[in-house]
Amino acid sequence: MTLRRAAAQVLCLALSALAACSRGEGDQAKAKGARLPAVPVTAATVETRDVPVQIQGIGNVQASSTVSVYSLLSGQIFHVHFKEGQDVAAGALLFSIDPRPFEAALQQAQATMAQHQAAIAQAEANLARDQAQADNAGVEEERYKKLVQGGLIAREQYDQILTAHKSTLATVDASKAAVANAMALVRADAAIVENAKVQLAYTAIRAPIEGRTGNLLIHQGNVVKSNDIGNPLVVINRVHPINVVFAMPERFLDEIKTARAKGPLAVEATPQGQSVIARGTLSFINNAVDTTTGTIQLKATFENADNALWPGQFATVTLTVRTEPNALVVPSQAIQAGQQGQYVFVIKPDGTVESRPVVVAFASGPLTIVRQGLQAGERVVTDGQLRLVSGARVDIKPAGPAGQK
Question: Helices 100-149 & 155-201, crossing angle to 10 degrees?
Fold first, then answer.
């Protein structure tokens, strides 16, 4: 009995020591967990603001009008009145072609018309003479008619007078036809003179539109052909205003059409490699979706007073469809993606964080609009989320101008 009691006491002491050791390790672990350092993070405050809903794409800058200038007649270039790359007004003189052959043709046409005008005067004088003779023959015919009726002269004598009267009337008709023919010749001459004036006017080649000239392709002294298609003298691009053509996915088409029906849509364009932003409005929506790319072609017009846009450039285009009023906004980097969907780490008043699911409406560049899950004034973690779990303590560090503590 004494040995059994002694063995039992030894066993009890061993179990007590083991339990004491277990409690000590647990307490040490808890103490160690309580002293875990706070995770350094950056944070931002959930704000309420009006946020523009924007769609971005890549566009190509195009001149609003492009004209290839050709000569309408053949001749030698006498003078070039502009410099390459110069802005010219509509109607500005660009080229002068040797006018002497066309001046000679005009003078010849004018001389021919003057000759035919003189012929009109001669024909009218002949008509007046023949008309007077016809009138005199008519009077004589009336007198002889009365004489023959009274039996005072022979019938043969009256017939001679009557024949002479009819002959003078026929002469009058011929004179009238001569006058009409001379007048027709003068009208034809007038048309020839007018055509010669037009040809002479074509020797001064003027700008059909306002714009900027390109490379000078024909120089002084060269001989040009009329309407030499494919060989323009110069190309003029109108850059005030200017257009940017771009494409957007067809899923945005209904939204764009609905918004445009309410008023003009603002468009911003930034040429690649530059920081300048040009502002314009949407001016055109194509009448069909491109089935090969699933996009709709759009066009925006810019005043381009500062020449920020240049034909042929590629530019990043931002189309503002509408403005979302009183939207809850957080920096886009605050949104995290998990197996259960998107979430953010919300900083609680006690300095710990809570993982909270959110419903995102859309992202607008560096900002994301949250539909559900947050309230204005709450703070969310924007950097350092990889080391966080719900309940972890955080140490909020300043993040510069882009972040808030």
Answer: 170
